[in-house]
Each structure stands twice: as C-alpha cells, then as structure tokens.
Amino acid sequence: MSSMSTASPSAFVSPLGFDFGTKRLGVATGNRMLGSARGLRTITEQGDARWAAITALIQEWQPDALVIGVPRHPDGAPHEMTARALKFAGQLRGRYRLPVVEVDERYTSVEAQSQGARDLDAASAALILEQFFREHP
Predict the structure, then answer these.
(1) Could you give the domains of the chain?
(2) pLDDT tens per residue across span 1-33
(3) What dihedral do alpha carbons 7, 62, 133, 87 form, nearest 10°?
C-alpha cells in the first residue's frame, strides 16, 4: 500500500504501533478484529541499527499501517518531542511506503506504568494502538 493511500484509518486491520523516544522506541502489534494490541519490544539501537530493527519487525509482522504516538503537553500544545515524533513519522512514510497515522499519546507512559508494565515503552506502544482502534472504529 502506498503512503498516498486514500484508505480510511478504520480500514487498517494489523498495524504496528510506535512509542517514539530519542533513546528508546517502543513497538507493538495490534489486531482490529480483536480490538487489542500487545507490546513486542523496545528498540534501543540508534542510527542505522535502529532502522534495521524497525525493518526486521515490518518484514516479520507485515503491517498494513504504522501508528505513531505524538507527544504533547497536557493542554495539547506541541513541545520539542512533538516535532521529533512528527519527523520520525515522515521518515517512516518515506522508507516503508506504508500509511502512517499519528495518534495523541498523552499519558500512555503513565497508564502503562500504572498497569505494572515490565517493558514500559512497548506497553505504551500497545496503548497507542488501542487508542487508535477506539478513535477509528
């Protein structure tokens, strides 16, 4: 599917979700039919090694879309990480030619922590996917 796809986000059945961070990148897989998501892993590699790890996950899971959490201040205003996450979303579009959907990720890390997640970043990515499913039924 091209990044120019006109498919509605509601049409995506098996996306990969990302909780973006400059040091860590949480990754999750989800299934719309089940309405659930689960964390896969946290990528700690940087540079080319980070992209190689993302490529390996995309090849393994064959997602039909990529969902990225975009952080914002509690009032919705952007901050430094907002711009970085949006840049990462653009890089995903360019590299993988898959649709990329951005989701507001305020409080996902706090929620994952309150649920006792062992891998906080991957659990946050799963919460981002679950939010995506709720926002695009």
Answers:
(1) 13-135 (3.30.420.140)
(2) 333 445 788 889 999 999 999 999 999 999 999
(3) -80
